[in-house]
Design a protein that fits this description.
The chain has about 160 residues and is mostly helical. It has 2 domains: about 40 residues, no CATH class; about 120 residues, no CATH class. Helix content is about 55%, strand content about 0%. It has 5 helices and 2 strands, in the order H-H-H-H-E-E-H. The chain has a two-stranded antiparallel ribbon. A hairpin with a 3-residue loop joins strand 1 and strand 2. Helix 2 runs parallel beside helix 5. The N terminus is likely disordered.
């Protein structure tokens, strides 16, 4: 089968193929570059397609929220390690088991779990949970939660170790 102006018979339609030009599926880098600038699917075309698999473009505000969450996650991990170094105790029992072993593994696991969660929330941002609430709204709630957590930890650090400020 020739990629340009192929004349293959379509077994379902019984006619000749009408495509002209190169097969786009075999040009991966070109497809990625064109898909980045000329996006096609901003959302599903049909109700039954309302899943994350049919979207190839996500809103830039979701990227910004995701990046802010990841920056706040790193800030949270650093502040937590500083607080633990000055006598504080980890309140999360799951992370307490990890943080007592090694600070690097604590930060890596914390960042890995948060990154995976952010990616899933962005991929599902247009899907509605419980029939009403878009998952994209949960992304903003996670961002607000991280802002509150880092603000709280900064206050704890200011009280526990005033020489940092």
């Amino acid at each position: 089968m020739s990629a340009i102006g192929s004349q293959c018979a379509d077994p379902l339609a019984g006619s000749l193929e009408r495509r002209i030009g190169a097969e786009r599926r075999y040009q991966t880098l070109r497809s990625l570059a064109e898909g980045s600038f000329m996006r096609r699917r901003h959302g599903p075309r049909r109700i039954e397609d309302a899943s994350f698999a049919v979207t190839d473009w996500y809103a830039p505000q979701w990227l910004a929220a995701g990046l802010l969450i990841l920056l706040l996650c790193v800030t949270d991990a650093l502040i937590t390690l500083a607080l633990l170094g000055h006598g504080a105790r980890e309140a999360n029992p799951v992370m307490n088991a990890v943080v007592n072993g090694d600070g690097r593994s604590f930060a890596a696991i914390k960042f890995g779990l948060t990154s995976a969660g952010v990616v899933v929330l962005i991929m599902l941002a247009r899907v509605r949970v419980f029939g009403r609430l878009p998952v994209g709204a949960l992304l903003y709630w996670v961002l607000v939660g991280y802002i509150c957590l880092v603000t709280y930890e900064m206050g704890m650090l200011r009280n526990l170790v005033p020489e940092y400020f």
